[in-house]
C-alpha cells in the first residue's frame, strides 16, 4: 500500500514520542501490505475499526499504544493507497468532533 502523508506521521511521532515506535512499525506493515479489503486488514490489525464519518465515507481507526492514541486513515483498497487523516489522543478521539470534520 502507498501511504500518503508520511511526513504527517513523522510530525506526530515528534509530538508524541511514546507513539514513535508504533508509527514506524505501522508504516512498515502498511507499506508492505497487499490488503484487498477490510477483513484482510483486520488480520494485521485486529483492533482496527471501520467508522463512517460525516461525509458518509468510511475511515479506519487504529488503536495506538494500547488505548493512548488513535490513528485515523482512509484506506482505498482498490488503488492501494492509505491517506493519514488524523492522529489523536484518546481524550480528543472520544469527543467525536473529528467525525464531523471528515
Overview of this structure, please?
- The structure is a single chain.
- With 102 residues, the chain is of the alpha+beta class.
- It has a single domain, classed as YaeB-like fold.
- 39% of the residues lie in helices and 30% in strands.
- Helix 1 runs antiparallel to helix 2.
- The two termini are 22 Å apart.
- The model has no long low-confidence stretch (mean pLDDT 96).
Under CATH, the topology can be stated as YaeB-like fold
- General shape: globular
The strand line-up of the biggest sheet is 1-5-4-3-2
**What number of domains?**
1
The biggest beta sheet is recorded as: 5 strands, mixed
Average pLDDT, rounded to a whole number, is 96
Quote the distance from N terminus to C terminus.
22 Å
Structural class: alpha+beta
The count of strands amounts to: 5
Helix content: 25-40%
The CATH class label is Alpha Beta
Please state the second-level CATH architecture. Answer: 2-Layer Sandwich
Number of discrete helical segments: 5
Amino acid at each position: 500500500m502507498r501511504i500518503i502523508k508520511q511526513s504527517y506521521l513523522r510530525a506526530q511521532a515528534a509530538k508524541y514520542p511514546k507513539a514513535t515506535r508504533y508509527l514506524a512499525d505501522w508504516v512498515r506493515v502498511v507499506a508492505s501490505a497487499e490488503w484487498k479489503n477490510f477483513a484482510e486488514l483486520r488480520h494485521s490489525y485486529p483492533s482496527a475499526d471501520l467508522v463512517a464519518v460525516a461525509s458518509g465515507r468510511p475511515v479506519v481507526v487504529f488503536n495506538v499504544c494500547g488505548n493512548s492514541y488513535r490513528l485515523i486513515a482512509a484506506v482505498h483498497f482498490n488503488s492501494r493507497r492509505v491517506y493519514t487523516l488524523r492522529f489523536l489522543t484518546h481524550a480528543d478521539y472520544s469527543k467525536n468532533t473529528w467525525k464531523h470534520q471528515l
